[in-house]
Design goal:
Layout: H1 15-48, H2 62-78, H3 82-92, H4 114-124, H5 132-144, H6 149-166, H7 175-194, E1 198-201, E2 220-223, H8 226-243, H9 249-255, H10 258-275, H11 278-290, H12 297-310, H13 324-338, H14 341-357, H15 361-371, H16 373-376, H17 382-401, H18 405-417, H19 421-424, H20 439-447, H21 458-482, H22 493-503, H23 514-526, H24 530-538, H25 549-572, E3 578-580, H26 581-588, H27 592-604, E4 610-613, E5 618-621, H28 623-627, H29 631-658, H30 664-689, H31 691-704, H32 707-735
Parallel strand pairs: 1-2
Antiparallel strand pairs: 3-5, 4-5
Length: about 725
């Protein structure tokens, strides 16, 4: 009776529910009875067991397991379903409460109250405890009740900012959130394209009042920055590519979003052109160039075709259409004319990179020289310096593809000699031995890394650099050995160091990697075996990454033949009086005309002391060339000169030791001066010791009055006179 409340104080309960409660109470009573019987049985069993057996674990009996099953079934039957529980909650009349026990009221948003709710959301942005996901949901609901285009633009700008805030603190924005943000930006651009009387820029007046409810299509401006949305969207895309493993399918799947992003950037460019926002237009144009400059024309043509199919805005005045080269040229030219110096420099470097990528080396070289970027690149920011290094590396690859070995070497030698190619090209983070990076600096360097699909192949770049160094350094080493008067400074110290290390190895197996192939080819080229050198170079597999690898292999074969001929002439010029042009052409498999032109150039540049006889077709070496000795003779002469120098040094040291540390000429002069000084000292000593000493001794004898005293005084006076006279004699002798 006490458990059931009275009808006066309790709420009315339906009969069905009352019957259910009664049945539950009956089942509880039966359960209590069963528990009592179980307790009594367990007590009786404990009384039977003695000692430790009372406290050991007991195996469950069949009756206990059946009782547990019945309890479980009863509990499952007594637990209502979620739907039924929800119905009971609704029937009981409970009210949902919010945080702090306050009753959550259902907010009704209309177009008239939209500004009020929008202002509250903006004020709560960035505060502690603000639920970012809830903010995005509320803004989605506000977007649905926007009454006109003006209100829609205001809600969309706030929604895009909230979507970017939702992913703050993460390594990169999740793909789904990024796609929702892109859809919101595209919707904002579509609204601006459909309502061209609306414009958004940073210096406009804020519209926080309710005057936009009665908007009827007149011209209006909103405060905001569309270009900042584009920059953030592109940066989040790049950050995701930096974080995702490039060797997984997720990276390829993420790369598919580059075309829709490019379409969004092109639509933003059209809007800024129409609105006349020059600064924002320059930033967006630079973003568009960043998506084009590192790709080939074939890939860019596919991207432009896909963008034309997706883009809904009109054509741009900056880009008039045509091929991809004209598109890139038009975008870069616009930045040359209207952008600030930093954007102009970056556009110039991207333009140079694109020209070099398509083997337009001379155009890229002229742009680099006329812009004087190399004079101010070290003063730019780090990202611009990385872009400058990338442009130089690509120019080196372009020069090598055209057969310009010297130019390829000059463009890549500074980069490859530094030992930090990954850091300079922003393709990796390396720890230096003398520098320990802090976690913040390492994180900053990782943020500067370029995505994997933009990277330049470092192995290919090293192969080009070492091959060009081989073709330059091996003939130079041969000419330095033949003519000792030439400078012996290495043209490429990195290559010379690698070659010396390879020659010091006791056992060398067959070449395995790129560096081993090039070292083996360099040795064969130095020995005059151009066939083996050509085979070693053409066996490198990295050449297949170049689009015209067969042409490059043929070019390298001809270069190796020419340099092998030059090395042969430098090495054996002292052994011949004359050599026939036909023999050289047959030996190195070159046309006779090419051999003749090569020899004429070497004679003209004073590389060979010889003359060409066109009638007999021979190269006649001059008499001065015979006077130049071979390498063995040069080494013997150097050794004899050093032995003579050592002999002279030993003779001088022996004379110095015998003469007391003085040379023979100095010893004779000092002897003459020393003889005169000794005689003077002797005469002065006798003169002082004669009269002066006797007078003093006589005086002391008279004063003391004793023979012993006289003897002591005489001895003491004589000693004093000797010391004084010796000091005077030394001083006078020194002056003489």
């Amino acid at each position: 009776d006490q458990a059931v409340p009275s009808t006066q104080t309790a709420r009315a309960v339906p009969k069905a529910k009352q019957a259910a409660r009664d049945s539950d109470m009956d089942s509880d009573d039966s359960q209590w009875d069963m528990d009592d019987s179980e307790v009594s049985s367990s007590e009786s069993e404990d009384e039977r067991q003695v000692g430790f057996s009372r406290w050991l674990k007991k195996a469950p009996t069949k009756d206990e397991s059946s009782v547990k099953k019945t309890k479980k079934d009863r509990s499952q039957r007594s637990t209502p379903a979620p739907a039924a529980q929800a119905d009971e909650d609704e029937d009981d009349g409970f009210t949902t409460v919010g945080k702090g026990g306050k009753v959550a009221k259902k907010v009704e948003v209309t177009a008239e109250s939209l500004n009020k709710h929008l202002k509250a959301i903006r004020d709560a942005r960035g505060r502690k405890g603000t639920d970012k996901k809830e903010t995005v949901v509320m803004l989605d609901s506000l977007l649905g009740v926007a009454g006109n285009a003006l209100q829609r633009c205001k809600v969309l700008m706030t929604l895009i900012s909230a979507q970017f805030d939702e992913s703050s603190g993460q390594s990169y924005m999740p793909v789904e959130q990024w796609k929702r943000s892109q859809c919101s930006i595209n919707e904002l651009l579509s609204t601006l394209e459909a309502n061209r009387q609306l414009s958004i820029f940073e210096t406009a007046d804020a519209h926080d009042d309710d005057s936009d409810v009665a908007y009827a299509g007149e011209e209006a401006t909103l405060r905001g920055s569309v270009v900042s949305f584009i920059d953030r969207l592109d940066d989040e895309f790049t950050r995701s590519l930096q974080t995702i493993d490039p060797h997984t399918p997720d990276y390829i799947e993420r790369m598919r979003d580059s075309v829709p992003l490019y379409v969004t950037i092109a639509r933003a460019q059209s809007y800024f052109e129409r609105a006349g926002l020059q600064e924002s237009l320059c930033r967006v144009v630079l973003r568009r160039i960043e998506h084009l400059y590192y790709r080939t024309d074939q890939v860019n043509s596919q991207v432009e075709a896909a963008a034309a199919a997706l883009k809904t805005s009109g054509e741009s005045r900056i880009v008039s259409g045509g091929d991809i080269e004209s598109v890139v040229h038009g975008l870069c030219t616009f930045l040359y004319q209207h952008a600030d110096p930093l954007l102009r420099m970056r556009a110039m470097l991207m333009h140079i990179f694109n020209h070099a990528l398509h083997k337009r080396y001379y155009v890229a070289r002229d742009l680099l020289l006329m812009s004087h970027i190399q004079e101010s690149a070290h003063q730019a920011d780090i990202n611009t310096q990385v872009l400058y290094n990338r442009a130089l590396a690509q120019m080196g690859l372009a020069a090598f593809r055209l057969g310009l070995v010297r130019e390829a070497f000059e463009h890549t030698v500074e980069l490859m000699s530094s030992g930090h190619q990954r850091e300079l090209l922003a393709q990796g983070v390396g720890q230096m031995r003398t520098q320990q990076l802090s976690p913040a600096e390492e994180q900053l360097q990782r943020q500067r890394q370029l995505p994997f699909h933009i990277n330049i192949n470092l192995e290919l770049l090293e192969c080009v650099f070492l091959t060009a160094s081989m073709l330059i350094e091996i003939p130079f080493m041969a000419s330095a050995n033949a003519n000792p008067e030439t400078r012996r400074t290495a043209t490429c110290r990195v290559f010379r160091r690698m070659l010396d290390y390879n020659e010091r190895q006791v056992f060398l197996g067959p070449p395995e990697n790129t560096r081993d192939h090039i070292m083996a080819a360099a040795k064969a080229l130095a020995d005059g075996d151009w066939v083996a050198a050509r085979d070693f170079i053409q066996a490198i597999k990295i050449w297949s990454l170049l689009p015209d690898c067969e042409e490059i292999k043929d070019m390298m074969a001809s270069k190796i033949q020419i340099e092998a001929l030059r090395t042969y002439l430098f090495t054996y010029s002292t052994q011949f009086e004359s050599v026939g042009l036909d023999d050289l052409a047959t030996m190195f498999d070159l046309p006779r005309g090419k051999v003749y032109s090569l020899l004429a150039r070497m004679v003209y540049q004073d590389e060979l002391q010889a003359s060409l006889d066109e009638v007999s077709g021979v190269l006649v070496f001059s008499r001065a060339n015979f006077e130049a000795s071979s390498r063995l003779q040069q080494t013997a002469l150097m050794m004899s000169n050093k032995v003579n120098a050592f002999a002279d040094i030993n003779e001088r040291m022996f004379e110095l030791k015998n003469n007391g540390g003085q040379a023979p000429g100095d010893r004779q002069g000092n002897a003459d001066q020393g003889g005169r000084g000794q005689g003077d000292r002797d005469s002065r000593s006798n003169y002082q010791r004669g009269p002066g000493g006797g007078n003093r001794d006589a005086q002391r004898n008279r004063k003391d009055g004793g023979a012993g005293g006289n003897r002591n005084n005489n001895g003491r006076n004589n000693n004093n006179n000797n010391r004084r006279g010796g000091g005077n004699q030394q001083r006078r002798g020194g002056r003489q």
